[in-house]
Amino acid sequence: MREVRTARTTTDYEAATGRIAGLPFRRHHVLLAAWTVLWFFLVEPSGGFSWHYLRQGEQLLFSGQSDGGLSLYAHHPELQIGPVSLAAARLTAPFSPHTGQLVAEAASAALGLVMLVVVGRTAALYYLGTGTNHRRLQQRLLIAGLAFIPMWVEVSVRFAHLDDVLALFFTTLAAHALARGKPTQVAVFLALAVDSKPWAIAFAPLVLALPRRDWLRTALWFAVLVAVAWLPFYLGNLDTMAAAKFTIPNQPASALRWFGVTDPATPWWDRPTQFALGLGLGSIAVWRGRWPAVVLLGADARILLDPSVYTYYTASILLGTLLWDAVGQKRLVPWWSWIALAALYGGTLLLPSDSARGFVRLAFVVVSAAYVLFWPTQQPRRPRSGGPGEGGRRAARRRERVLVGADA
């Protein structure tokens, strides 16, 4: 029999989903959008700090110059930007430099809102069939989102790092595809993340969270799509290999200083160790049944061993805490998102000593990694099929699926 929606059922549905007067918007959507717009206009006048790298890179990539095209990375190792990001930056070429920068900043900031929606739906899918309280999930996402947005505007507007933006955006889509049980999509989105920014390889352990039967096929898709993007540059100019050895200054506030690393530039072992640590910690998280911690652990490895301390690095940490707070645990208050914002961003602004700032970064990595790996958490328990009352449970799950799209 076809269901007739009365005024009472409509009111109940809107209350359950957070809809505003029958519109396709939810209350927390509107609040987060307003928060994003506020931060965008606060930061944009001083924004675009690194946009010239994207502009230069896309012009060289699509030019016939001897130091461009497939020789780009051989001649410009300082452009540690993936080809997917340069192709995306090319979309701003028809505009004037200022307008193109503004378009990129606005689009990148908007992707932060999209990611919040995707994370909410990922959480709803992850807890599907467990009696998820959708209003609590919306509240948890709102509170975590209020911490996430300032750091997202830092990377997307102040620094205009389209490469980091796309790497984190595609990683979010990969996590959502994982929750949906779509192995090919997981491979595609993870590959696009690496093709946008190489350090996203630290998030590859998400593949291991798939059923074991899907590992090989997903890994092959991932490897092929990464090779398609990067291999032409290595074959086009063998000197591209030198780009992997590009170094940056070892800043006094780096956590590396607390390990006694005083080299003026990036040590030769630093990048391989950074990738290995991120991959190792992420694999342990999956082994312990905590794949929502993979992004946070990969980002932890980055800020622990990176010689630089740019504030936009914290955006990857905030995406990691957002996924952990929304998907990895069911606490109403997303403490880790706010701890990360206070420690890594607030510490940068308030602590006067480089050494103290480096210690805070080190302490955050150690404590957050230990927590998400070993602290007891409540894992979702789904009822087994069959037996008395299964019809009611199926109906409940059907109602939950209706609400899944309302969680972010």
Give structural notes.
The protein is an all-alpha fold and 408 residues long. It has one domain (38-377). The protein has 16 helices and no strands. It has helices at residues 7-17, 27-43, 51-61, 72-75, 83-90, 97-126, 134-158, 162-180, 183-196, 215-236, 270-287, 294-305, 314-328, 335-350, 354-374, 390-404. The longest helix is centred in the first third of the chain and has 30 residues, at 97-126. It is globular, with a radius of gyration of 22 Å. Residues 1-16 and 383-408 have low confidence and may be disordered.
How do the SSEs run, as a string of H and E?
Answer: HHHHHHHHHHHHHHHH
Largest sheet: none
Q: Indicate the overall shape.
A: globular
Number of helices: 16
Structural class: mainly alpha
Percentage beta strand: under 5%
CA-CA gap between termini = 31 Å
Overall mean pLDDT stands at 88
Radius of gyration: 22 Å
Count of strand segments: 0
Residue stretches low in confidence (pLDDT < 50, at least 5 long) are: 1-16, 383-408
Count of the domains = 1
Helix content percent band = 55-70%
